[in-house]
Amino acid sequence: MEIKDIVKKENLVYKKTPLMTDKALSYCPGCGHGTAHRIMMEVLEEMDAQEKTIGIAPVGCSVLAYEFMNIDMIQAAHGRAPAVATGVKRCYPEKFVFTYQGDGDLAAIGTAETIHACNRGENITIVFINNGIYGMTGGQMAPTTLKGMRTSTSPYGRNLESMGNPLKITELIAQLPGTYFVTRQAVHTPAAVRKAKKAVRKAFELQKENKGLTFVEIVSNCNSGWKMAPVKSNQWMVENMFPFYPMGDIKVDGELVVKK
C-alpha cells in the first residue's frame, strides 16, 4: 500500500494549519514557542482571519514569529510592541491585532508600553510567553525570575534583598480598568494546550466584539536558559513556576475572578 492510499481526508487525525509557514522551527527542542504559535494560527484559521490579522513581534525569541506565522507581521523595537499595536489598531480598527512578547520584553524593557496600553484599554490582544528568563540574549535574570532561580546574571540564585521580588505583571495589569479578559495558561501537556487554545480563541473573539484589551499569558519553559533537558524543564516548571504563577483566568468580562 502506498502512502497516498493512507493519507486520505477521512484518515487524517491532524493537519498542519496553512497559517504556519513551511519553514522549520528554529526554537530549541522542547521550547513552548512552537506550540504557542500553532494554537494561535489554528484559532485564526478557524476564524477565517488570515487576511484580517496583523501581528507584532519585538526583540527576543518572539521576534522569530514572523518567519513561522503566515500572516502580516511587523517587527517592533524591544519592548515597544504594544505601542506599535496601538497605532496599527487605530489605523485599521477592523483588523485583528496582536502582540507576541516574552517576559524580558513585556515586563522589563516594555513595562511602560504594556501598562499604558492596558490602562487605555486598546482593543488588541497581547500574548505573553513567560519563561522567567531572557532566553535569546544570554539567559539573564528577568523581572519574572523566581526567588533562588539561577541565571547568567544571578548565578547563585535570585536574592530578594538585593534583586527585588519577581514581578507578577499579569496580576498587575488585571487591576487596570482597560483590561477585559486576562488569563494564564500553559502548553506543556495536551490538556493544557486545549485550554490555552480556548483562551486564545476567547481573546480574539472579544477583540472582535470591541471589548478592550485581552491578555493571554502562557507560562513556558526555557530548557536552554535553565540548563535542563526538555522533560526535566517541564517538570521544574510545574513544580516551581506554577505555584508562583498559577494557571487559570484572572479577569473575565472586565471583573476580577475571586479565587476560593
Helix amount? 25-40%
Strands, count: 8
The oligomeric state of the chains shown is single chain
Major sheet attributes: 8 strands, mixed
Side-by-side strand order of the widest sheet: 2-1-3-4-6-5-7-8
Terminus-to-terminus distance? 57 Å
Structural class: alpha/beta
What is the CATH homology-level superfamily?
Answer: Thiamin diphosphate (ThDP)-binding fold, Pyr/PP domains
CATH topology: Rossmann fold
Which CATH architecture would you pick?
Answer: 3-Layer(aba) Sandwich
Question: What do you see in this structure?
Answer:
- The chain has 260 residues and is an alpha/beta fold.
- It has one domain: 3-Layer(aba) Sandwich (Rossmann fold), CATH 3.40.50.970.
- The chain contains 11 helices and 8 strands.
- Strands 2-1-3-4-6-5-7-8 form an 8-stranded mixed beta sheet, sandwiched between helices.
- Strand 5, helix 9 and strand 6 (213-219) form a beta-alpha-beta unit.
- Helix 2 (33-46) crosses helix 9 (190-208).
- The chain starts with a helix and ends with a strand.
- The model has no long low-confidence stretch (mean pLDDT 94).
